[in-house]
Amino acid sequence: MSNNILKFAMNRNTSVEKINGSNLRSVCRLRDTLTDAEVVIEVKMPDMAICAISGHFRHAYFGEIEDLDQRLQAVIGVRVAAGMLKIIKGLMGEEEKIHQIVYMVEECCHGVILTLTRKVLLKAPDDEAGKFSFYSNMVQKSIRLYDRCAAFAKGTPLVAELESEKTEGGA
To answer: Would you give per-residue pLDDT tens digits along the chain (171 residues)?
Structure first.
């Protein structure tokens, strides 16, 4: 007797590299049992505008997104900055079939932000209390870091003060 057990595996990663002397290329890849997708953006520095974008998306049940290239090209010129997700959704659309690809474009942008934040992270004090205070203040000053990496995820100690301010401000 054989068991028909569904097996699912997922791998999503985002990487950023410097190209052309100053521009950055950010790549988000998604591979799972049903999906093979990739988004590649090039960000022009120092204005942080998306100057090139490409990608592919294949899903076992949904197939490909026929107008994917047209949707991706719509975000050229968008600046990697606060409010970009709303702009990206407005330009690419919000239909269910493209939710994953919109998320991947956003992940590419956040990869750029985190790469540029790296230099600031290296300035943290050596002692544990100093590091905690430094990182906590950093996420409060740059809200776009909130929930973008494991350290600044919802419910973690580094964002506790920020979350309590949100709760008190909303009450």
So the answer is: 567 777 788 899 999 999 988 899 999 999 999 899 999 999 999 899 999 999 999 988 878 888 999 999 999 999 998 789 899 999 999 888 899 999 999 999 989 988 887 777 778 888 888 878 887 888 777 766 776 666 677 777 777 777 776 566 554
Q: What is the CATH number of domain 10-115?
A: 3.30.390.50
Whether the predicted model's global pTM rises above the 0.90 cut: no
Residue where the block lists tokens 């791998």: 11
Domains of the chain: which residue ranges?
10-115, 124-170
Judged on CB neighbours under 10 Å (0-12, 13-18, 19+), 122 is exposed
Tokens of 53: 């974008």
